[in-house]
Amino acid sequence: MAQEKWSPDLLKTPEDRAIHLAQRRAQIEPIIDDLRRLAREVAADLKERGGLEGDLPFQAKARAWTTGRPMFQAVDDLEAAITHLVAFGARYERSYEELPEKRARKAAEKQRVKELKASGGAPQLEQQRSDEASQAQNGGLFDHLTKGA
Prior knowledge:
mainly alpha
C-alpha cells in the first residue's frame, strides 16, 4: 500500500486508518522536530541581535518575539494536524461504524416495546412498580433525612 495513493475507499477499515495515521506520523514528526529546533535557534539568534538604533525599551525583544512567532505557530499547526487525524479516526468510527449498530439496537428495542404493548403486557412497568413497593416497604434511601434537621 506504500506505492498507492490514499483514497477514501482505503480509509474505511480501522486497520487502514491506523496504518494511514502511522504513516502520516512518520512523515510529520521529523518535520516537527526539525522546525522546533530551527524555531528555537532563530528565536535565540533574534534575541542576541539586540536593538536597533532608535528602539524604545523592550522594542527589540518584542520585535524578536513577533518575528519568530510564526515558526513556533508552524510547529503547533503540524502537531495539531496529527491530533486532527486522530480525531478523524475516532469520529469516523463513531459516526459510520458504531452509529448504524446503535440505531439498529434502538429500532429493535422500539419494536420489542411495540410488540409488548400490542400483546397487552408491559413487564418494565411491572418491574418498576415492584421496585417502588419494595422500597416503600424497606424504607427509602433518604427516609432517615428530615427537612430542616
